[in-house]
Structures
1.
Amino acid sequence: MGPTSNPERSSSLCFLVFLIVILWCGSGNAFYLPGSYMRTYTEGENIWVKVNSLTSIETELPFGYYTLPYCYPQGGIKKSAENLGELLMGDQIDNSPYRFRVNVNESLYLCTTNPLNEHEVKLLKQRTHDLYQVNMILDNLPVRRFTEPNGVVIQWTGFPVGYIPSGSSEAYIINHLKFKVLVHEYEGRGMQIMTTGEEGMGMIAETDGKNSGYEIVGFEVVPCSVKRDPEAMQKLNMYDKVDSVNCPLELDKSQTIREQERISFTYEVVFVKSDIRWPSRWDAYLKMGGARVHWFSIMNSLMVIFFLAGIVFVIFLRTVRRDLTRYEELDKESQAQMNEELSGWKLVVGDVFREPTCSKLLCVMVGDGIQITGMAVVTIVFAALGFMSPASRGMLLTGMIILYLFLGIVAGYVGVRLWRTIRGGSDGWRSVCWSTACFFPGIVFVVLTVLNFILWGSKSTGALPISLYFTLLSLWFCISVPLTLIGGFIGTRAEEIQFPVRTNQIPREIPARKYPSWLLVLGAGTLPFGTLFIELFFILSSIWLGRFYYVFGFLLVVFLLLVIVCAEVSVVLTYMHLCVEDWRWWWKAFYASGSVALYVFLYSINYLVFDLRSLSGPVSAILYLGYSLIMATAIMLSTGTIGFLMSFYFVHYLFSSVKID
């Protein structure tokens, strides 16, 4: 009793601590997210605005800020450190000449460009026509602006390069920015945040006395187009004071984009004290819209689950259990007589565990599916607990890649163990491991390479540099492949799963059916898709329309419901196939739930046609469809694996209760 009580007590204590942490995180209105640290500024301290890539919902092709004739910073352009996720998303964060002094309201001059040449005019007009947005960052907060079409206030991140008024052929550039910085006066005691120069990085050091300053809790802009006298402006130096202006409504007072025009860039900044505290400053960006729609999605999924659970309940309790109980109560002579009168799933007892066609491919896809599912579960759970802060740009994608790499050991183990179960031996396990390590990453690599050539041709910052290609290949070859081989080796040493019945040498003929079985398999995918499609709309909107997606709590619930529905659909369909004496259930069980990916891809096309109507050009459409294909493939492998493993367990349990020779 003594030796076993300590582990039990320690595991209970760990679970209790974990539960308290979750409840504490859930009960707080706001808390400091890991990876982000508060920075306080003193009065008059210089703070610098950073610029990200220019983005557009019309083309989805990001371009560098300094590809347009904007003012350069005095010390030259310096790129900020970027993580793997930022590079993959096409972010290019640079310094800018926009300088603020804390709590100092001022209106300043930046620069006047040289006369615009034909190429610069064409480029500015093209970016204006394609609705490109300038994205600025201050203290890790993206700039916001507000518009009021039809009296409804809409919040945007970034501001346009320019605009073309309705009924006019002229394009006008945004060359004057009216910034509003919200600050919260802070008084701390006994600690100080010491930064390393990059936002989101720092350490806490204890100090004596009080530490007071200002926290930046909001960053807003009103963009204007103002025509100024270039001769008078050129006499000024950068950061000389200029008169504050109101945004003109008259077009003759706005700055047109024409050849030989010299454009003067100016800005003004106003600091406003705010009651918003630093932990709550992202709330304005993460306001959850459509909460009722999310709840409707969950209720809809629950109805589907209860419906399928009822069917599974009927299968297990009324049909399977009844038949098994009746069979077990008979004596041997009666069982032999009953064997001759068997019907339905009992007739395929000698073929149900026969090796499927392309068994190696099935093992590979199940291994990759486990890897993707594990990555998704861990990522969503961490994001729901607040560990994937939007303040840490690219962290979500970086975390997903790292998780996928290290979960290769699980993929190798599951793929090889399934291979041993099907083949009855370990011969060829290395080939299974290599195929598992290369199958899904190979598909992603081929699609990304094709898309990258398109992006290179467009000179977009979304194109992956060659160095990043080598980095990704190194990570794959040095981490994922060895771990997959290690997992496969462990799988060869694991206990073999024994089939409960023997397989006949001669395959049983499958009766002809009135309709092809693949129709039933394709139709089964509609039920998992029904639990997913509403949340899919919000995810696609966050990816392609530049909105923040941070309702990971809802996403976690929807994902759990999706897992349950996939398992139930696959079990029901497998049982239906066995009842009509179709023993080729392996691939059908996989695609019964995996076919949801087809509907996801079709929905993506529907979203492109009806919700991304502004998307212009074949290049943008090819990029969208390429990324959608990668997403659909990952969903197919994940959902197909969930359905297959549940069906395998169901079939194994079902026939382990049968005593037929």
2.
Amino acid sequence: MASSVVKETLGTLNKDSYVNLLSKLIGESRYVQNNPPELIPQEDRVVKHVLDALLPLSTKTGGGPLVINHITYFTGRGNLIVEYPGTEPGKILSFVGMHMDVVTANPNEWVCLSFLMLLFELNWVYNCADSKRFYINFIKAVHVSIVAISSRCRSCAPIDTRSFLLKSWLPTIFIGRLCEKCDGKCEFDPFSLSIDGEKLCGRGTTDCLGHVALVTELMRKLGETKLKLKSTVIAVFIASEENSAITGVGVDALVKDGLLNKLKGGPLYWIDTADKQPCIGTGGMIPWKLHVTGKLFHSGLPHKAINPLELAMEALKVIQTRFYKDFPPHPKEQVYGFETPSTMKPTQWSYPGGGINQIPGECTVSGDVRLTPFYNVTDVMKRLQEYVDDINENIEKLDTRGPVSKYVLPDENIRGRHVLSLRYLTLGRDDFRILPLSLTLTFDEATNGVACNLDSRGFHVLCKATEEVVGHVNPYSITGTLPLIREIQDEGFDVQTAGYATEILFYFGLVDTINSLQTLQAVQKIKWAVVAAI
């Protein structure tokens, strides 16, 4: 069947049907928050609504061609595979990654709907060519938008925009200072769908219950129209994407059991990224923690102390310097459009407390490595071990901070020991008296990045469909991390990624709270164009 006929038959997104389904799914978001052991999602609550939409069009009820398989490894935590048979054996097109769990949400910390609308309306400013132009356009847009925004906030009085702009500055805008009466936190429940014109808000709207609803609508449309497609279209709705503390629940178990093997016959579109453009690369991540134990002493006698803050800074400087030498910008990063190379940096610092006149006995620095997919996380962790081993053998060579700063106390026969470990701690050498004095680097679960196959027909079809619907195609890469998909790619699947969240919202921590029905309709057209072309 000609692709033009397929697209014409499928038509546009049925907004009423989509919003009705999404409202039911967001209504379950409280029960599918994923943060064990406190919050263990019950994805079957979402499965129920998807089944309600698709079972009447399935072979199980005799009402249609959809083949539905509900697979559960843990009670209440199901996965759903929905298949629309094609006419040519072996030709496959699949949509995977629409996960039915969500990240946690605290209603007391959510800003009002009006604040989210402001960010959405200012999204265009984000792409300005330089920071000066961004700032000017931002202020103009705030000034123009604020009156309309205040009128939407039903519990708030009108805002004097001139006064607002004078006593506010850029960062305070983004933490919710939109109105003096509600402080940006009025009349919004993250666990129910809120609608303001074409804008939608609620936990899971974009990550990822909105994707679940979109692909459900696609499969429903196929079941209703009974189009003759060459390729079999398969949708895989998965459990347990947001947290890996409990394994063997979702797509990892499906792959292990061979239930997705047939998907290797064609492109696998992982539907869980931002923007309407194809995402062709993601980063790997290595969370790390550097715990330093020194010797506590009065700051008036620093020569009798080993300052863990100084020791941490100097050791981290050496580790970072060697990291950037061994893992420089990779030539393929330009091909894939990564904005940043691989990085290792601290993001948090803590210590137990104490007086300002006291050199602390310990401190902890935490951070992450963001790795482009052209390097392997295992190789990086091995190198980090080598760096620390070398520092251990040459601790006297570390730079110090002033004439009495030191990491060895010869008179007391105390020597610092740096240890790199994976969930264990080794305490050092027999030829020294070891005080509980160490620099320990530990890792949480690491994830490799993904570089999609740019020679894949699935990639080229996605690009063509995007250009046709959106008007332009601009594939991008980002060192944000998507779990699970590298393992799937390594199993031989042709993984391509796509999604529809507004990317700027990721940077302000507001991902999955807002979307536009126009955006959703555009992305649904992209999916249908892909179905027609494969």
